[in-house]
Amino acid sequence: WPWFLLPALVSPMMVGLRMDFSMLLEPLGFVKVLEGLLAIFAFATCGGFQGETALLVSCKGVVNKTITAAFAYPFRLNTVVFSAPDPKGCGGTWTDVYLMGNFSSSAQFFVTLAALVFLYCITALVVYIGYYHMYQENNKFPLTDLTISVLTAFLWLVSTFVWAKALADIKVSTGASIIPGIESCKAPGTTCRFLSVTSMGVLNVSVVFGLVNMILWAGNAWLVYKDTNLHNQWSRISESP
Questions:
Q1: Is 172 a member of any domain?
Q2: Which segments constitute the MARVEL domain (predicted)?
Q3: How many CB atoms lie within 10 A of CB 202?
């Protein structure tokens, strides 16, 4: 029976449909395409990261053994453990060694915002391409678009700075400074040296994408204000005695 209801639900939406793909070349439509693409890049560069940090360990019965700890998004480092130097655990002196810190909230905030922004861009493009005449005639649509643009610019600002701070802490928690905090490395006859950590240049790029998104959405808010009736109405109000 739902198939009989489908035409009744779809037909009201199709009544006002006027497809106009030239809107993709207009500032409002073109900026939305850019925002959607940059949201994907921000999502991918942060959410797709995988890396590892490595130490060189010498202990009882083990000489220069490389041990690694693999970490990835959402960067719950406190659940990441180094591989043991040998099955005997350096003669019983080696215990499980975990990285420090849980940065999942900052990373997930950033990635979730990127995903939601992409979905909104798709929705806005559908409105611009198919219902732009209704968008211009009804002030509620531009006002909603303007409010969302301002809010999104603010959220990009907050999430980017929060993620940038978390990224700086991730670099510390996976770098050479972890050696003094490893109790197993303080055992008699045991030495640990920092070997390497995966480059986090991609994560640095994600922060840049976040800042670019923030600037783009702030500019989008100005475009929505200038290219709709909101600007004209405000001008008439300011000019009236």
A1: yes
A2: 23-229
A3: 15
